[in-house]
Amino acid sequence: MAGRIASVIVVVLLMANPAHGQQAPDSLRQKFKLPVPRLSDALLAPRSAPAMGASSPSAFGGVLGDIWGGATWTNRPRFATGQDGVASGGFALGDPYRFLGLDVDIISFTTVRERFLLRGAVDFEISRYLGRGFAIAAGYESAIHWGFQDTGPSRYGTVSKWLVLNRDDSAPFSAILFTVGAGNGRFLSEADENAGKKKINPFGSIGIRLAGPLSIVGDWTGQDLYVGGSLAPFKRHQLVLSAGATDLTHSAGDGTRFVVSGGFSLNFLGR
């Protein structure tokens, strides 16, 4: 894509209700997009970029013409056994660098155990780029949903900062992405969610570009900790592969789980 490289975020959401664990595996969500700022303070990378985030939603939204999609596999859902996964895709409208951008994500839950789109949801996020590597966004997850859902809709606000350490993206530790925010629903602690409390809870993540096609990500969803790595194997095609482990703190669910994912993004208008 000319003038901007889209990166892939793999969202790993693990929010199963213990009472329904066998019927309702984890709601693994993913937003396969993370546009790098196009302006003068952006990392103008000459190659495709690895993922720089995970479950915590980034404030960097897409522009008109952006599309993305992918799938995630987990070795087991929370409070259940056997493998599962999800599929997701989305598109962007507007332009957050000039006014506002709107991202739309369509998710198919439990796609390994059940047929495609038997259970699903549509998420929305409005974003705005502020300059100097900062962006803000507000989102509404599961604004539209169908089939059994193990958690209700989630609303959030988020801020992201893109920090360029070296404009040569092949250099070690060339960029860092920080994200912080707060929300309800899936961002609550497991105890607060199960108790049905009406409150908000903080979340955040950090992504570090190790060198060229490689990055490492740490993410606290407000409920559990994810750590993983990402690889963009092709220089000119935005295909991203990621793998990691979640609930490393054992603060949610019944133990650590492993996830593997792949996704793509492109702009069909050539931006």
Using only CA atoms, what is the Rg? 17 Å
Give me the CATH architecture, please: Beta Barrel
Mean pLDDT: 83
In total, the number of strands is 14
The helix content, as a percent range, equals under 10%
Q: What is the N-to-C order of secondary-structure elements (H for helix, E for strand)?
A: EEEEEEEEEHEEEEE
Ends apart, CA distance between termini: 5 Å
CATH topology: Outer membrane phospholipase (ompla), Chain C
Strand order of the largest sheet: 3-4-5-6-7-8-9-10-11-12-13-14
Concise account of the structure shown:
The protein has one helix and 14 strands, in the order βββββββββαβββββ. It is globular, with a radius of gyration of 17 Å.
Q: How would you portray this structure in words?
A:
The chain has one helix at residues 190-194; strands at residues 6-7, 34-35, 66-74, 84-94, 101-108, 120-131, 134-146, 154-164, 175-183, 201-211, 214-220, 225-231, 239-246, 257-267. It is mainly β and 271 residues long. The chain has one domain (6-267): Beta Barrel (Outer membrane phospholipase (ompla), Chain C). The strands form two sheets. A twelve-stranded antiparallel barrel has the order 3-4-5-6-7-8-9-10-11-12-13-14. The protein has a two-stranded antiparallel sheet with strand order 1-2. The longest helix is centred in the last third of the chain and has 5 residues, at 190-194. Mean pLDDT is 83; it is low at 1-45.
